[in-house]
Design a protein that fits this description.
By secondary structure, the protein is an alpha+beta fold. 36% of the residues lie in helices and 21% in strands. It contains four helices and seven strands. A three-stranded antiparallel beta sheet has the order 4-6-5. Strands 1-7 form a two-stranded antiparallel ribbon. The model has no long low-confidence stretch (mean pLDDT 91).
Length: 177
């Protein structure tokens, strides 16, 4: 089986895209699904954003599977422009609608807040008003125009399975020596 890297150009116009509950469903790309959100940080909240990053890392130490329902490949958070703007970038295996609904449910179940609370314009009633949460995300989403995958269209679960198979095969081979 040959794995061929691929790239897909994402159109600027979204009128022709399938519409989900919350707007256009961007196509699955070789990197799977994802989005980038860029928003202004509330004045004086940059340290709280960084602190939330530390809290999330500690929560993941306690429960490495905390974010499992989101089917993430990775997240990247960046503070820039002298800590006045924040970028949230995630790549995951579900479409936008499912990811955001799962994120809201996960926050509610875990009883945790979201880093977005430190961003200007984020709705205070986001826990009980998922439409406002999603409207904020859509308003601050900066769609990519090209996405590349070295191992295209592979899910996080498939990658983990392949790594388990590799480990098991390695163990068998070690025992044969």
């Amino acid at each position: 089986m040959e794995i061929r890297p691929q790239a897909v150009v994402i159109p600027k116009e979204t009128d022709h895209l399938e519409q989900g509950k919350y707007g256009p469903i961007f196509p699955r790309t070789p990197a799977n699904y994802g989005f980038t959100i860029i928003a202004r940080v509330k004045p004086g909240h940059a340290d709280a954003v960084r602190g939330y990053g530390h809290e999330l890392a500690k929560a993941l130490e306690r429960d490495p599977y905390l974010l499992g329902p989101l089917k993430l490949h990775y997240l990247r958070w960046v503070l820039f422009d002298d800590d006045t703007r924040f970028m949230y970038q995630g790549i995951f295996d579900t479409d936008f609608d499912k990811y955001t609904e799962d994120a809201i449910a996960l926050f509610a179940k875990a009883g945790v807040s979201t880093v977005f609370e430190h961003l200007e314009g984020f709705p205070e009633d986001w826990r009980t008003n998922p439409d406002a949460f999603i409207a904020f995300v859509r308003a601050h989403q900066c769609p990519s125009f090209i996405e590349y995958g070295e191992y295209p269209y592979v899910t996080a679960d498939e990658i983990k399975k392949a790594l388990r198979v590799r480990s098991a095969l390695s163990e068998v081979l070690d025992q044969m020596q």
